[in-house]
Each structure stands twice: as C-alpha cells, then as structure tokens.
Specification:
CATH topology: Rossmann fold
Strand order of the largest sheet: 3-2-1-4-5
Helix content: 25-40%
Distance between the termini: 40 Å
Strand content: 15-25%
Largest sheet: 5 strands, parallel
Number of domains: 1
CATH superfamily: HUPs
CATH class: Alpha Beta
C-alpha cells in the first residue's frame, strides 16, 4: 500500500484544495492529510486561519478521497509527523514554502526516503486561498467566519 502525505492549512475548502488533494491521491493508495495547527498558521502566515484547526480537520475528513486527516505536531520538530506516518510519497502544493526548504535534509537525517512531488496549481488566479477569501468576503462575513481572534 503506497502512502501519500500532504500538508496544509485547508482553511475554507475551495476547488483549488480539492484539485490538490485529488492529484496527490493519484500518487498512491492512501492519502493522509496533515492539517496545520492554529499556532503554526499564526507563526507562518502572521494571522490565525478563519476556521479553527478542529473545523478544518473535520471538513477535510469528510472528503471521500481522503483516507485520513490528522493535526500537525505542536512540538518543535515539525517534521516528526513524517517519521510517524512514514509515507512513500510527499506531495507539495505549487506555492508551498513553509517547512519545505529544509525538508530533504531533515528526511535524510531521519533515514526517510519518500519521493517528493511538487504538484501543479489549479487556476491559482481564481482559487488561491488569500484571493478566494478576499473575493468572497460578504459570504464569509454572513457566515460569521471572518478573522478569528485568539
């Protein structure tokens, strides 16, 4: 069984996320999605996600092509989850930069050798999360999802 691992915030699921996850699934039999913790998102993106980690986890778990979704680690070693899952493949988003620069070195250090695949974007001018949120502001305002405060 070939395990594929992906990482992301997955805040306000949109067709770009779905495309990414479906493309990742094509690289194996089992798709495992690691959902970024709220504190990690705050550190990386300088703001909390609109939906909290439990809401984002629940939304991704409902997707029928996702075999498992788990929360990322709160430990200082953000790569530990890779050691626990031991994937055959790690798929990265076209614009994914956080924790990617040292990924290959960390994997080698831990004796892990998954294939790393950078996936293509799906209409990023329309479905990049920041663009999607800003262009659907009224919808999220009505849904009371705009800017969580922690």
């Amino acid at each position: 069984m070939r395990k594929v691992l992906v990482f992301g915030t997955f805040d306000i699921l949109h067709p770009g996320h779905e495309y990414f996850l479906k493309q990742a699934k094509k690289h194996g039999d089992e798709l495992i999605v690691v959902i970024a913790r709220d504190l990690t998102v705050k550190q990386v993106k300088k703001e909390f996600p609109v939906n909290n980690e439990q809401e984002r986890l629940g939304a991704v778990k409902k997707l029928d092509y996702v075999n498992n979704a788990i929360l990322g680690s709160l430990s200082k070693d953000k790569y530990r989850i890779i050691e626990e899952v031991r994937p055959d493949v790690i798929c990265l988003g076209y614009d994914q930069e956080a924790f990617v620069s040292g990924l290959e070195a960390k994997l080698q250090e831990k004796g892990l050798k998954p294939e790393i695949i950078r996936l293509d974007a799906y209409k990023p001018e329309k479905y990049k999360s920041s663009y999607y949120k800003s262009n659907h502001y009224e919808y999220y305002k009505k849904a009371k999802l705009i800017k969580r405060k922690e």
